[in-house]
Amino acid sequence: LCASMVDPESGPVRPEDGPVRPAVSDPDGLLKRSRELLDLFWEIAKPERETRLQAAEKLVEQLKKSGEADELNYAVKRLVNGLSHTREQARTGYSATLAQVLSVFEEISLQSTLDQIKEKHNLQTANKKQIRNVVFGNFFGVLALSQSSRLHKETQVLLECIKLLQTLSQYREHLRELPRKTMVDILSETSEEVFEEVLLNALQTDLTCALSSPEQLELLLVAMQKFPSVIKPAKLKKLLGTANIISANTLPRLVEVLKTAARSVKKESVLPSVALDLLHVSLREDSFELFWKEAVISGLLSDPPGPCHYLVFRLLGVALPLLSVSQLQFVLSGEVMRRYGEHVASAQLPERFKFSPEMGEYVNSFMQSCREPERQLTVILAFTQLTHQGYPAVPSHWKVVEHMEPKALRQYIAWLKEAFCQPQLDKCLEFSTRKQREGQESTVPNETCVFRFRKWIVPRLTSIVENNRIKKDEELVMGIARFIFFHAFFDTKKATAGIPETTCSLSVPLDSTTRGITSSAFYSLLQHLNVLPVLDDSAEAGAGSKRRALGVMADGSMWVHRLAEFADALLKQDAHVQNTRTFTEEHTQAWDSMLQSVEMLMKKMKKSPAPEHTAFQHLFLIVGIQMFMAPEDSVELLKDLRSCMEKAQAKKSKKKKKEQEPHWVEVVVEILLSLLSQPSRLIRNVCKTAFSRVCPHLTQPALSAILNVRRIHKHRTEDITMKFIMTSHFINLCYQDEGESDSSDDDADDEAMEEEQEEVDQNFRLELMKVLQGQNELATEEDGGEDEQEMDDEAMMKLDKNLATLFGEQKKKLQAKKDEKERLRREKMLVRDFKIKVLDLVEVFLIKQGSSVLVLGMVEPLLSVIENGMSSESGQQEMDFLRRAAAIFRNQLCRGKQYCKEVEGREAELHEMLERLIGRAQKLRDSSVALYYFSAALYVVKVLRGVEKSMGKADVERVTNCFRDALTSFMTRRKSPLTGDMFIDLFNRFPAVCVNLLDTAVENITAGVREHQQVHLISSKLSSYRTAAYSFLLDGCLQHVEHKNKAVHERTVKALELCQYLVRTIHTQKVEVNLDPLRDALRSMNADGSLQKAGQLEDTYWSVMKLFGIQKPKVEKVKKVVEEQTEQEAPKKKKKGFLPESKKRKNRKKPQVLEGKEATETAAGAGGVEGGKKKKKKKNKRKGQGAQSEAQSPNKKAKTEPPQSKKQKKKQKQAGGDQASAE
What is this structure's pTM? Predict the structure, then answer.
């Protein structure tokens, strides 16, 4: 059986590749099984890992089923042969499969298998070209034996494998350290008795030379760890001359071994296993400090930055879980940490290797596994105190604190607060860069270091609160918030126990920059507290299925309210604390009034909760907290809020005394718009939250105030160079002329600037000429040839002074114009940013009040914003604004789940809006903008229809006429902005309108001028139909169909798909419709039998005819009749060195005789071809070949002679004229 098998390397024999052999009977399926077995060896060598594993499993299963020894021996032979394959994936597949076969079939002797490996892959007889594959064959063979889990049972084979691996270790250029690693793996699975009796003597040489290479040292360390009773200190002293691995005598050689190991894993970027084993040995031998000082610091760190330094950093990372608190303090306060800090500082440059992410993983793993707060705190503080000019090397948002124990976290936060107040930089581990050590950079003063340290501590504290994965309670969060708020806006006069923040005095006073950073951090923290869920789990559990509250504490009070109470307590402690911004009497009254209003709202909330009460309370608190940043603006807003709240709380039955006063919601909207002008994310989110609470009370004037942002006032303050407070009636977001005016204004400004620049240049030129003429330096035309008089020193100095003054003034003018241009650009940018914020309010209203009647008044304004954005400039901010507006219009308005259903009395207005939208969509140039107008028209139709199944309150005839005009425009205009997808959406959503448009659709399908649109229109009918229109639609779709081009072919396919859909629907729903005309029309399409072949059109046609009970006729295959004469004739042997007839070049000069033509005509045609150029020859060659083919086929017409070119005709005329003149 084995002899009859075919080697896969020669390729499988296919019947079609040669003559058909006589059939061979295979009743037992032996040949089939052999073929499957051979195919498995091909799959074992595939590059895909999954394919190799599946093939190995199938091979083992097939060998189990057959149970034949011959197949098993053949499989082992084939696997042994494949061990030396040239491809790595193939070698791995054969080795793994051999290991699996040996582990399953124990009747196979390991000794015989090893002998086969040595015989097949003989190291002695292999030449230089074969040695690499032979070495790999031996190695993967031993690897297969070791992975078979039977090697420890046959000690003799185990010994031979170890000796073979020792021999293979000499071929390091091919295998590197693989043999030594395999020996280590074999040792780890060997029993102590076998090691002592069998392997110890064989490994004597390797163990004696353990300090020579990393592989041999690792072999010794594994043996010591696995067999401590065999390799005792006495035995170790006999092998190495010392009873301990870590000693003063062995450290120099160990350092060299570690350096070699570090260089060997340079590309892999991993920690060598020998380094980790040495670390464990140093801990067992109680010589860790000696090893760390001599081997790590004095040895490895003495090399330049590179692989040795990275080995030390990795060794530090893996050592963290193994060390005690004292050992951690020793390691983390020495030279290794300083070198790590230098690496972090130098790796900031681009294209530099950065080790900090890997170190972060080591520390994160330690924090996750360690549950001792003291060790956690030691590690975190050590990395925090690693500073460069006062700034820590680790980032302020370092996420390793996520796994800190609560006790360690509290201690760490207390240390950060103390370090902020009294920085002790002398206790930090300061490192410097190479340039600083060489004196190329100046030293930084101590005040700057303190500022940098505090600059890091503040975001470190806020990141602890903002990280939701850190376990923390409300007391911890409130303590951080109070600490940051206090140091942002207050100073300590005298310590008091009532205010814990005053107990720790500042060793270095806070400067204005630090206060600015702290105040910004506080408002960022306040933004997070407003969306922070309840931290107490018991409160959430008690809430049950209620919606989770955000921004509140467990008792229901808001975080911002607690901070306002703390601020009020600080303001009342004048003897102990002082506000950095002194409040006037007006400011104090506004603050007290704000707190009174909040208290009153809280009482009303307990009696009768209302959303507007919560909104007012939130606004009062946020604006009140803003008083510490901008007191003047906050006082005005608080007054407006208080008057607005009083109007909102007035009884409904009470009439207004002054009808001219605006509604309270309008005042709230104006306040929100004013707040949105501030560049604060906190204010932006608060405005969104407050607006969502007052949405149900919104009026039309209030909504108009949002859509029409009218005026910009500029306010300049000390900290903010430009601040905008928007009021109404200036910047109109609704009208179309905004984009045009913006772009035209920009163009006009640019042109004016250019013209003015030209004028300035001309004026400057004239002034310069005057200065030069005044000093007789500008020569005239008359005395241009005379010698110039020399100027004295005084005149020269005067000229220089005048020129310097002139150029200085010109420079100031140019700089002023640049500043003005930059100011205008920033103003425009801020205005656009404000408009983006206003879109937040629009989105909130559409989400909360999508069913309100006021939504109908937002359709056209939003469309005009989109249209203007498309036609205006394409800056990044403008594109963001346009995308945001388009997304709100599409997702929240047109596709929103809620829409207006009460349109009583607004029918005429909605129909007029529909006509305007459709009319505008047809006049546009851009299809993308027309799509939004068409979607708005569909939204209006949906509003008119309401919840009824019919068209509701929509005037069907008026709506149909509107869309009929659009459909006609789409089919007749060649540059129509409308698309087929728009009408498909219309027909899918409103089938009633589709029925009324059937006549127009069919008319345009058959007679339209845009064939591509006809295909779209037919596709749209596949999902919209009515019984009365079946035959009319189908008859119109299938009339006058000719396959002229691709568009017509595609239209025919779509028409047939429509027929198939309609006929199947008629049969399913049992509708009474006469389908005979359709069947006759379909039969006429195949009258000439042109639809018998295979193709999309033909398949679709016969699928439709199958519904009428007409099957596609089967085409009988005609077998080729082989004549007896051809069988008897022997094939002619091809002459070697000669081309076959089909490859020979044709002689173009010979005339070709065509049917029905004289030879003279052909000769003349051939002569004309000769006179042409090369390009003409190629064309005529194809024509001549076509003439030959047609001459051979009698069913086709004869081909005429090829036409002559103009140049040929001209030459013939000249030749004829010359001949006539000669005569």
Answer: 0.67
